[in-house]
Amino acid sequence: MTHDLTVFLFTAAMGASLSLVYDLMRAIHSYCKDKNAVVAITDIIYWIFVSCLLIYGIEYINNGVIRWYEFAGMILGIGIYKLSISGIIYCILCTVTGFIIKIAEYIFKFCLTAGHFLYKIIMVPLFGGCKRSNYGIRKLSGDKNGRAKG
Known about the structure:
The structure is a single chain. Helices cover 87% and strands 0% of the residues. The chain has a domain at 2-101. It is built from 4 helices and no strands. By secondary structure, it is mainly alpha-helical. The termini are far apart. It is elongated and about 80 Å long.
């Protein structure tokens, strides 16, 4: 009986944690511009995560035996989480996700700006000068289209 109660409580905690991960996915979706691609990718990642967690959890806690109260515990965990703290956690996750996305954007812009700056310093003098000098040579030795006279 105590083992059954432990399994029930464990699956209820698993259901609540899966709901938490789902709220994290919703928070990520709220900040993305291209929702179709992001939703598809995060859904695949979520269901792989859910499958692995369920298989590992059932194998670990109950030696792979599936009982009806495991499903009841999972549904109860999801319901308690959604009715109690889901709204608060979702707001916190949206704030944290927005902050992380803004930091990532600044880092990405900095890297691109630094890369563009290095490109201008190194590549433009080397290859930009060659284009101008080739054009100047063609212009001096040929007609206005760069073809040789004669």
